Every structure is written in C-alpha cells, then in structure tokens.
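Action item from last week, closing it out:
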Amino acid sequence: MELIFITIFFLGFAILGISIKIWGKKDGEFSGTCASQNPMLNKNNEPCGFCGKPPEEFQDCTSE
C-alpha cells in the first residue's frame, strides 16, 4: 500500500512540473516543434510535417 502512495505522489509531482512548464511558456507551446530544426532527424531536407516549411525557413515555424 505504501508503494502505491509513493507512486501516486511522484506521478502527481511529474504532472505538476509539466503543467508549470506549459503555463510558463508563451501560448503553452513547447519549443522546437518542427523536425526540420534538427539536422539529425531531417537528413533528406524534407519539409516539416507540422507546418510544411522547408528547413531553410524554420525560424518562423508556426502552426498556421
């Protein structure tokens, strides 16, 4: 029974930490949502699956 309470406590603590991170970010968005920003993930210079922009334009990546 003690293990269940410890597990629930740590899960709650993790959820609280993620909630604070989202609350503190501008518009609740995590940074780096475009795979085109990471050259290790986008070796073929494909456009972003999130916004459709090519890797050259990743600075202005938005969900619009």
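Closing note: The CA atoms of residues 21 and 27 lie 11 Å apart.
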